[in-house]
Design goal:
41% helix; single chain; 2 domains; 10 helices; UDP-galactose 4-epimerase, domain 1; two-stranded parallel sheet; alpha/beta; seven-stranded parallel beta sheet; Rossmann fold
Length: 328
């Protein structure tokens, strides 16, 4: 039984990782600036605190064998690509990673997993919606499309430099649009699958929903359980990465909207409006992870979206019921 720390345990992927590690029989400490909004944490111990605070991370890494670092200042396109949060995104996330490595090494942590992002890939390789290039070696010459991506790329190099200089084991994965239940679905930080599910769940049949841009921008989306499986395989392997963890089932945002409408049994019009978009096209290139880890996603996008829509529909209905109760 290992003693494992999950940074960002109050968040979406971190919360799911805590569940997986507990099922495997490990002792888990979680730490986050907030408790999980949608589930009770299964962590053996949970520290409520800001990982930018050196005292918090020093306490968190004490007696720990491995660290899973998911904590970051992040959100969907409406948060990342407006430019309004760039300084906070870079400062907060970089500080968390610097603290985690510095105090982790001092405490004797032997292995670190770092969750990077497909946002590190150069914007110039993602201008063609149907033929984006996101193979791992294409990260350089660097030209991420956001400050969020630049911070992630810096932190990749930070973790790998600690591996070289301090002899700790490091594993780095670049996530491609992870989605699923028990994640942010409203408030401005939700990502495209959750936002689409919310819009369709809230809309009356025959009405319309808004789509940013022309809807022909492409993405691939990976269900959270598959992400967790890929991470565990990477951490238990002898491969450091960086490696993509994502799906190769690429769809347009318009196609994603149509899929959710089919799941909901609704016919809605799409109204395209101006909004932050990110790159024109992005898709996970899974050649390296298949070769090095023998892993690939096993579930179609539709299956994950059905589960996610069902869960978000419940949240929408619950929120409406609470509003009605408050008005009485």
């Amino acid at each position: 039984m290992k003693r494992i720390l999950v940074n960002g345990a109050g968040g979406f992927i971190g919360g799911h990782m805590v569940k997986r590690l507990k099922r495997e029989g490990h002792w888990v400490r979680g730490v986050d600036i907030k408790h999980h909004e949608y589930a009770v944490s299964l962590a053996d111990e949970f520290i409520l605190g800001d990982l930018c605070d050196q005292r918090v991370i020093a306490e968190a890494v004490d007696g720990i064998d491995e660290v899973y670092q998911f904590a970051a200042d992040m959100g969907g396109a409406g948060y990342i690509f407006t430019g309004e949060h760039d300084a906070d995104v870079m400062r907060n996330s970089a500080t968390i990673n610097l603290n985690t490595l510095h105090y982790g090494v001092q405490a004797g942590v032997k292995k670190f997993f770092y969750s990077s992002s497909a946002c590190i890939y150069p914007a110039y390789n993602q201008e063609d919606a149907q033929n984006p290039k996101c193979s791992e070696e294409s990260a350089y010459p660097a030209a991420p499309d956001s400050e969020y991506g630049w911070e992630k790329l810096f932190s990749e190099r930070l973790y790998l430099s600690y591996m070289r200089n301090y002899g700790v084991a490091v594993r780095v994965a670049r996530f491609h649009n992870i989605f699923g239940i028990e994640g942010t679905w409203t408030g401005g930080k939700e990502k495209a699958p959750a936002a689409m599910c919310r819009k369709v769940a809230e809309a009356e049949d025959g009405r319309e929903i808004e789509i940013w841009g022309d809807g022909e921008q492409t993405r691939s989306f990976l269900y959270v359980d598959e992400c967790v499986e890929g991470v565990r395989r990477l951490v238990e392997s002898d491969f450091s990465g960086p490696v993509n963890i994502g799906s190769e089932e690429m769809v347009t945002i318009n196609q994603l909207a149509e899929m959710v409408m089919q799941i909901a049994g609704k016919k809605l019009a799409l109204r395209h409006i101006a909004g932050p978009l990110g790159v024109r096209g992005r898709n996970s290139d899974n050649h390296m992870i298949a070769e090095r880890l023998g892993w690939k996603p096993t579930r179609p996008l539709r299956e994950g979206m059905e589960k996610t829509y069902g869960w978000i529909h419940e949240q929408v209905m619950s929120a409406r019921a609470q509003e009605m109760t408050a008005k009485k």
